[in-house]
Structure formats: structure tokens, C-alpha cells
Amino acid sequence: MANTEREQIMAVRKNGDGDLTSFQTSTGRILDYSQALNEIEAGSIAGVNVFKAKDGSKRIRGDADGDPTNNLDQLPLF
């Protein structure tokens, strides 16, 4: 399976409003939001995708797989 070769998001950091601000990958790298956006768009991180919000900004979300336990908001904090 190709996903095992790509990094995955394992933990997240949130700001005071609960918005995701940083991500920790399966190799231990810490990516800020813009770094994560770039890497997801390049296809180097599995299990997540980028979509355009109503306000036109790009946002990161987990792939829809029917498993709520791996939603980004449910991942451990670091």
C-alpha cells in the first residue's frame, strides 16, 4: 500500500481557539500550517487533503474514511 511509504500526521498543536496550527508527522517532523499545506499538496503526506474554504483560504482536513478516531481534531496534542 502506497500510504505506508508516505508520512502521516500523528499529532497536532492547536491555538487558544482550538484551530490547528502545527502537525507532527510519523517521522517526528514538526510542520507549521503552511509547511503542511505545501507537503500535502505535493502528495508527500498520506491520509489528509487540502480544500478551499468558503472564504477562499486553503484548509487541511483528514481524508473521509468513516473513522472518526483519526480525524485531525481527535489526534493527540504535542
Automatic annotation (TrEMBL):
User: Which stretches does UniProt call biased (Polar residues)?
Assistant: 68-78
Residue ranges of the region described as Disordered: 58-78
- Superkingdom to which the source organism belongs: Bacteria
Pfam families assigned to the protein according to its UniProt record, in alphabetical order: DUF3892
Q: What is this protein called?
A: DUF3892 domain-containing protein
